[in-house]
Amino acid sequence: MRENPDYNDIYYQNTTTYSQMIDIVTERVVSLSELVVPIDWEAFFGNAHPVEIEVGFGKGRFLLEASRRHPQVNYIGIERARKYVELTRERFAKYIRHFGVDKASGTFSNVRLVWTEANYFLTRYVPVASVQAYHIYFPDPWPKKRQRKRRIFRNQDFLSALANTLKLDGGRLYIATDYKEYFSEIQERLSQVSALRPLGKNLGPDRDITTNFEMKYTLEGRKIYRAVYEKLAS
Ligand SMILES: C[S@@+](CC[C@H](N)C(=O)[O-])C[C@H]1O[C@@H](n2cnc3c(N)ncnc32)[C@H](O)[C@@H]1O
Q1: pLDDT at 106
Q2: Cα distance between residue 64 and residue 62, in whole Å
Q3: Is the CB of 152 inside a 6 Å radius of any atom of ligand 1?
Q4: Is the CB of 140 under 6 A from ligand 1?
Q5: In terms of pLDDT, which residue wins out, 149 or 112?
Q6: What pLDDT sits at residue 140?
Q7: What is the 99 CA–ligand 1 centroid distance (Å)?
Q8: What pLDDT is stored for residue 102 in this prediction?
Q9: How far, in Å, from the CA of 104 to the mean position of ligand 1?
Q10: Domains of the chain by range and CATH?
């Protein structure tokens, strides 16, 4: 894990000052700068349940359904666009107003929204070998040639952080995109990360939960490309 991030990096710009973590149920908002790094998940959530992280949750469809479905899993959603963090917060609030929360299972006490940049969060806040799964659905493809350098899978620190922070015993990375050329690039780049290996057709237990982009693109008849990677034990 990188010890001294370069805060001039495009991935860090405009994020460190505003970064916040939001508790859906208690509505408590804390600045990331108040947290002790790296985060001790067990102390933080008050349980030893596994932790899964969604990078770029957009309008939060996957995060809501997955965290509702799996109360025994803790979810961290990271999103750098404030408007999507607010939209997702409202999506959860609407759900709670409509359906209430199950006090026994503590609906949504297992989820936190983090308004920040993913690479910043992974390299600074997430402990080594502590994440059961990453979900990265429809990462921005930055199709214009001069913008491709912004692709998150081009960031070596991010790739290393994914590999370092996944658990050794079966940590998984789930990816989906509609963008064929970017999908090939992602596969090519991940093939150079020796700690990760592709898992063929094993697409995971929550394959049926659709994200907003997936719904949109599926309706348009676009093909969706998916991959799952597993962290190797050594
Ligand atoms: C194309 S949208 C996909 C949203 C959602 N995953 C879906 O499938 O509906 C990509 C999202 O990732 C967010 N994003 C892009 N780069 C990010 C980064 N480095 N850190 C956090 N969020 C990021 C964007 O703000 C946007 O909401």
Answers
A1: 80
A2: 6
A3: yes
A4: yes
A5: 112
A6: 96
A7: 27
A8: 75
A9: 32
A10: 20-231 (3.40.50.150)
Ligand 1 centroid to Cα of residue 118, in Å, is 9
Strands 51-55 and 133-137: parallel
Dihedral of CA atoms 119, 120, 121, 125 in degrees, nearest 10, equals 120
Going by C-alpha positions, the residue among 68, 82, 137 that lies closest to residue 113 is 82
Cα angle 29, 62, 36 (rounded to 5 degrees) comes to: 35
Phi, psi of 112 (to 5 degrees): -135, 140
The confidence score (pLDDT) of residue 4 equals 47
pTM: 0.94
Q: Which atom of ligand 1 is nearest to the CA of 54?
A: 6
- As given in the structure block, the two tokens for residue 166 are 């996944």
Q: Give me ligand 1 centre to Cα 152, in Å.
A: 10
Residues 6+ apart with CB under 8 A from 132: 50, 51, 52, 73, 166, 167, 170, 171, 172
Take residue 180 and report the two structure tokens written for it.
Answer: 């064929």
Q: Is 137's C-beta closer than 6 angstroms to any atom of ligand 1?
A: yes
Residue 200 — very low, low, confident or very high, per pLDDT cuts 50/70/90? confident
Which stretch of 55-69, 98-112, 172-186 has the lowest confidence by average pLDDT?
A: 98-112
